[in-house]
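QA checklist item 7 of 12: single-chain prediction sanity check.
[x] sequence parsed
[x] length recorded as 101
[x] structure emitted
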Amino acid sequence: MELTTLVPLAGVVGGKHATIAQPGHPGFFVTGGIGKRYGPMWHSLATALCLVLVLEGLMPFLAPAAWKRMLAAASRISDRQLRIAGLLCMLTGTACLYLIR
């Protein structure tokens, strides 16, 4: 059954009237791809994860020998230093997202 408008559900959910987003409208439970099926947040998350995979694959593809040397060097760094580097990356990424959005 293809509807093109938001249809109120019968009854009340959590004290509020719930709606089902139909195909072609933003929101959750729209049929189609991940963004249309699960909502814009999931579409953004899936897009971000795909972009991470592309960026992670650049170095081994473009310079595999340098990538191996980098991994060997990283294996000699202490766990504490790696955790601090990871924390700094997460904080920098969060700050950049805050500034962009």
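[x] summary fact logged: Residues 63-101 form one domain.
[ ] second reviewer sign-off
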